[in-house]
Each structure stands twice: as C-alpha cells, then as structure tokens.
Amino acid sequence: MSERDASAAGLPAQNAADHQPDQPAQRVPDREKTLLEQMGGISGLAYSAVPIVVFVLVSSFTSLMPAIWSAIGVAVGIAIFRLVRKEPLQPAISGVLGVAVCSFIAYRSGDAKGFFLLGIWTSLIYGGVFLASVVVRWPLVGVAWSALNGLGFSWRKQRRALRGYDLATLAWTTVFAAKYVVQQWLYDSDQTGWLAFARIAMGYPLTGLALIVTVWAIRRAAKVAELEKAEAQQDPGAIPSNPSLS
C-alpha cells in the first residue's frame, strides 16, 4: 500500500508501511509446510508401512513368493489409490519401486529377511553422507532446504545459522545410525518379524524428532538472515555480525 493509498484509506503513512507483506520470516512457516509434503506427507508415511506388514504376515502363513507378490500388489494398489486422489505422483512411484527392489533382493537371497536389506544399508549410506556433509561444512539439511526453495547459500557465512543446520544434519545422522545398528542386529539374529516392527516403529518417532530439529534450524537461519539484513539497512557501512539467538 503506497502513502497515497494509505491517506485515502484514512491510515497514517507509518501504519501503512507496517502492513506491507514483505517480511521474509513470515513466509518461512509456509515453506515449512512443504517439508513433510516433499516426503509424501503423513499419509505417505502410513502407506509405506502397509506393504511391509503384508509381506511379513503373508510370509509367516505361506511362503516367500506369495509374500513378494502380495507386497508388490498392495504397493501398486496404494499408488493407484493415491493417483486417483490426485496426491503427489513422486511418493507413489517411489513406494512401488522401493517395494519392488526389496522384493527382488528377498527373492535373490531366498530369505524373507532379505526384504529389509535395502533399508538397512540405505540407512548406513545416508548416515555416512549426512555426517560427511557436516565435516566439510556443507550440512545437507541447509543445502537441501536452500536448493528446494531457491534461497542461496549465504547462511554458510553466518556462524549461528550454520551451527543450526549442523545440528539438524547431525540429528538425521543419528536417526540413520540408530536404524542401521538396531535393524542390522535383528537381521543377523534372523528376527524377520521384529525387523518389520523396528522398521515401522523407528520410522515415525525418530523422523518426527529429526523434523522438529530441522524446523528449528530453518527458523533460526531465517531469523539470523533477517536480523543481519536489518543491521545492514540501519548501518550500510557496518560489517555484518552474528547476533546471539536464544
């Protein structure tokens, strides 16, 4: 709203400026809403558990091949259901491909527990990559968030923003490490049923905790950027500082 428009509306010019919707921090919560959506949403997390449960139940009462085909059939059915509901296509396709690859590994190994090998080793690889990104000072949480939203990487020069992204990335590292250690132990112990339970039970709580730390890091980085921008506007010749945030 311009000063002329504000005057016509009976508002003081200063109050009109206060109504300008140009605060970057106000747009951060809207971007945060897309974080879980990019992972398939709450429904995507629930759908991913169904083929696992079906596989274990069918393999317990019959044999490996019926379990494989049942899991694939359920995954395809869920994908079609999501497409009919016009939900995001990528999580549906990923779900089918993931079940298909896990089923193929189980078929090649000749053992139902092979269904979980992909997830176990994926957790190890992801954990290593996330940890390495912190070591080289390019924490993956910050990199991924900036790339998805086109925000740039200026936060790497802001010590407190970088520290927040480091902590969020280390939280995901801990999640993947815990999944690998527990599920690898169950795999070695031939506990297929408990493997399924661990895969599902560890998925929701640990992912939720990591998401909480991630959202905190995103808001922290946005606040640091906003404060430094305000300082630069007040004193254009000053060297940007790293304000302390509680």
Automatic annotation (TrEMBL):
It holds the Pfam family DUF3159. InterPro entries: UCP010219. Keywords: Membrane, Transmembrane, Transmembrane helix. The chain crosses the membrane at residues 41-61, 67-84, 91-109, 115-140, 161-182, 194-218. Residues 1-29 are annotated as: Disordered. Coiled coil: none annotated. It comes from the Bacteria. This is DUF3159 domain-containing protein. It comes from Saccharopolyspora phatthalungensis.
